[in-house]
Amino acid sequence: MVPILTREFKGGRPVWAYRTRSGLRHVDIMPREYKAMELLHKLGMIVYGKMLAPNHTLLGQFILLSNYTLIKQWENSGFFINLMLFAASGIVLCFWCATLEVSGRFHKSAAKTIQSWKFMKQKSRHDSKLMSKFRKSCRPLAIGFEQIFKIKRLTVLKFIRGVIKGTFRALLLSQRKH
């Protein structure tokens, strides 16, 4: 049953286009299976979600320090030191931005999936009401830790903006002190 649920979260399709078997998209099966998947996701995020916020901070600070050192000590450092700092900063920035982008797309896809349940055909009016109430009770799955750090689509842009602003603020503060 798990491969069917994982296909449900793949994006790049219209909201009304389903890739799963119609047997799964029924009010008797969907709530139980979705809640089981939600529980597995929550248990995974208890372990991995706690590591995301510190990693986000540490990687951001590493990039800021590398950028600051590159700009401030460009003439005092050797060519290979500058090259290593530039490469390390770029690799970490690309890696973390890719991680944030994939996590943001997962959240967006989960939100689309829940919205797609609005278009499900049910056998009776009672089933439609039950599915509507279930859909409204579900929150989209997100990578992160509850109420502390959730990665959404704009997290990548906020991270890059923070790196750029932080680099220039550090440079301006160092100029002010001299």
| Helix-residue proportion | 55-70%
Total number of helices = 5
- Cα-atom radius of gyration: 22 Å
Number of strands: 2
Q: Tell me the β content.
A: under 5%
User: What separation lies between the terminal Cα atoms?
Assistant: 64 Å
How many separate structural domains? 1
SSE series: HHHHEEH
Spatial arrangement of strands, main beta sheet: 1-2
Tell me about the largest β-sheet: 2 strands, antiparallel
Multimerization state: single chain
Structure description:
- The chain is mainly alpha-helical.
- It has one domain.
- It is built from five helices and two strands, in the order H-H-H-H-E-E-H.
- The chain has helices at 2-8, 30-72, 79-116, 125-137, 155-177; strands at residues 143-145, 149-151.
- A two-stranded antiparallel ribbon has the order 1-2.
- A hairpin with a 3-residue loop joins strand 1 (143-145) and strand 2.
- Helix 2 (30-72) packs antiparallel against helix 3.
- The radius of gyration is 22 Å and the shape is elongated.
- The protein starts with a helix and ends with a helix.
Outline the secondary-structure elements:
Elements: H1 2-8, H2 30-72, H3 79-116, H4 125-137, E1 143-145, E2 149-151, H5 155-177
Antiparallel strand pairs: 1-2
Helix pairs in contact: 2-3, 2-5, 3-5
Short description:
The chain is 70% helix and 3% strand. With 178 residues, the chain is mostly helical.
Essential attributes:
mainly alpha; two-stranded antiparallel ribbon; 5 helices
